[in-house]
Amino acid sequence: MIPHNESSSTEISEFLLNCFVRSPSWQLWLSLPLSLLFLLAMGANATLLITIRLEASLHEPMYYLLSLLSLLDIVLCLTVIPKVLLVFWFDLRPISFSACFLQMFIMNNFLPMESCTFLVMAYDRYVAICHPLRYPSIITDQFVLKASVFIVARNTLLTAPIPILSARLHYCGNNIIENCICANLSVSKLSCDNVTLNKIYQLIVAWTLLGSDLVLIFLSYSFILRAVMKLKAKGAAAKALSTCGSHFILILFFSTILLVFIFTHMAKKKVAHDVPVLLNVLHHVIPAALNPIVYGVRTKEIKQGILRLLRKEK
After folding, report:
1. pLDDT at 176
2. 3-class SS at 135?
């Protein structure tokens, strides 16, 4: 490792994650809930994946999409949280050049993938409620396969340049990242080069992907709400809304915590430096822990599937 105060003519080979060093007490009280959330996210998503895999009654497009969401959550958690806990517990702050940019690639790629998966699930609910008779012919296994390919291709093609642009920069001075993770802007600002292109590209891609997904999701739910209001049969509206209630709760939480992080980051001069850093870490574990629990609690078929598996084990 090259110390950050040496000559700027020497390229650095690794970074240091400066994770809450200004607030060491944060590391102590955050490590326990963070580790519990991590274990909960891993356990709940693994249980959901196993249940959907083994229960024939759950081999339907909606549950395949939920499996995809669980896989994305697991990868995001494994990419971020173990390293943060190693920093908290053992002060293992160094991260290699290649590991840092791999982490950056996965975070920038999988977060929009999750947003895009929510969009496809919103479309699934829209078809189920607004065009119920056509649902079996529109939302098929083939549709899920095509949607999955689209999710991976769209986000990989558009987000891959972010870590590539950052990795091509020259890092020849300070090697201390003021963050718990290798966020693009936190890393690229350490470069000796001009990083304007990095900032502009990330801004455009983030608002294009996440912004368009959120607009289309809420547009889908406005159509759903309008269709539900027209239902005249007793209890039909409540039943229709309950079928997409858990999905809507997760979307609201995902978008809310994301918007809070964005606006906090924009107003960083008015808030403590550690606040956006904390929100960035939590955004990779709290939705991952909540997604399978909300679906497990609110979806009767999943609850029954888990109970059947438990009975078989006994």
Report:
1. 93
2. helix
How far out from the chain centre does Cα 49 lie? Answer: 17
Rg for the chain, CA atoms, rounded? 22
| List of residues 6+ apart from 29 with CB closer than 8 A | none
Helix axes 236-266, 97-130, angle to 10 degrees: 150
**Interior angle at CA 46, CA 40 and CA 247, nearest 5:** 80
Q: Which domain holds residue 53?
A: 14-313
H or E element: which one contains 2? none
Which domain CATH number covers 232? 1.20.1070.10
pTM above 0.85, yes or no: yes
Question: Distance between CA 257 and CA 309 in Å, rounded?
Answer: 34
How many structural domains are present in the chain? 1
Rounded to whole angstroms, the Cα distance separating 304 from 311 reads 11
pLDDT digit string, tens, across residues 142-159: 999 999 999 999 999 999
